[in-house]
Specification:
- The chain is an alpha/beta fold and about 350 residues long.
- Helices cover about 30% and strands about 20% of the residues.
- Among the domains are: about 80 residues, Rossmann fold (3-Layer(aba) Sandwich); about 80 residues, Dna Ligase, domain 1.
- Helix 1 links the parallel strand 1 and strand 2.
């Protein structure tokens, strides 16, 4: 019997529904349950063919446990080694190289010295920083947010340089991004599961949290197709099995705002019943597929195109036309495009 485990924190609706769905499908020799950890010994496996990780970004003990499970053969979703290395500024730099539109973004040193460092630790950092060129590049208004954070924590809207210095003084040891504001006419959040399945969801980040997933009926098919292609490309290069990409659309151009969300919101009460059903069904099918393909004692992780090509010293270019991933058979359910797509 191969077990699919769900590692989660405070959330309940998605993990419980996913476990129930996998078990309802009654695939021979495959079952699902909540992960149980009562000890972690170096080089000893956990009893799971697949683990869907929803919480290790906040719990270092879990992250180390997932790495140990991975080297013992568990297919961990998402790859804990890449997840540990990834951050939002690198994501933006990669998108630039791939030709995907992103806001103009600069990396900002932390306002306070990290613990166990002094002024002498920053011999290579110019003081003062070249703020004039940074501000000229991003412009104002702009947003400032942690370079490796999630959600809307510690996010500031800035109106001018004085506002920047005032807010930056409140950021402590966080390394921040300064990012051009994209004044958008529409906004989308897109699930990508298994590197192939995309769910494009109209989203309004200015609404209260529980009202952000909205209905929209006038999105062009061209825009939907463009966003889908960007989602697939970003996740192929990053190597995420489960991720969301957010787009702010300005002048009909979708700008990738945030695509480092390997444990995205999947709560029934926030995403809505139709989106929730899609993510549960799609994740269950993908997890079962990974369990079937899992080889005990081998590397069963997903590694992105960036690492694969870098290790082979290949250029950062488009995926070859004849290079495809295994197709995943999904149960019938809601279509992956936003409702009401129309031709321009």
């Amino acid at each position: 019997m191969k077990k699919i485990g769900i590692l989660f924190g405070q959330e309940r609706s998605f993990p419980e529904a996913l476990i129930e769905r996998v078990n309802q499908l009654a695939v021979k020799d495959i079952s699902a349950e909540a992960v149980r950890i009562d000890q972690i010994i170096q080089g000893q496996p956990l009893d799971y063919a697949v683990i869907i990780d929803r919480i290790s970004q906040d719990v270092p003990f879990y992250r180390a446990s997932m790495k140990n499970a991975a080297i013992c053969g568990t297919a961990v979703i998402n790859n804990p080694f890449w997840w540990s290395a990834d951050e939002k500024f690198f994501n933006n730099a990669l998108a630039v190289k791939l030709g995907i539109p992103v806001p103009k973004t600069a990396l900002i040193p932390s306002r306070e010295h990290p613990d166990s460092t002094t002024e002498q630790s920053f011999s290579n950092l110019a003081y003062p920083f070249n703020w004039d060129e940074v501000f000229a590049y991003t412009g104002f208004p702009a947003y400032m947010k942690p370079f490796d954070g999630g959600g809307w924590r510690d996010v500031y809207k800035l109106h001018d340089r004085e506002d920047f210095f005032d807010k930056h003084a409140q950021t402590g040891q966080h390394v921040m991004l300064l990012q051009e504001e994209i004044v958008f006419e529409s906004y989308f959040r897109c699930y990508c599961i298994g590197g192939k399945q995309v769910r494009i969801m109209p989203y309004e980040p200015r609404n209260p949290f529980h009202l952000r997933y909205t209905e929209q009926t006038n999105t062009s098919k061209k825009l939907l197709k463009t966003m889908e292609s960007y989602v697939l490309k970003l996740n192929a290069w990053l190597g995420y099995d489960f991720n969301t990409v957010e787009f702010a659309v300005r002048d009909s151009i979708p700008y990738a705002i945030d695509f480092c969300n390997p444990a995205p919101d999947a709560d029934r009460n926030s995403v809505g019943e139709e989106n929730f059903e899609w993510v549960v069904a799609t994740t269950a099918a993908y997890a079962i597929d990974r369990a079937k393909r899992q080889k005990p004692g081998q590397d069963n992780l997903t590694w992105g195109e960036y690492l694969r090509r870098s290790s082979a010293k290949l250029p950062l270019s488009e995926l070859p036309a004849n290079e495809t991933k295994p197709k995943l058979a999904l149960p019938a359910g809601p279509k992956r495009r936003a409702k009401g797509g129309k031709d321009e």
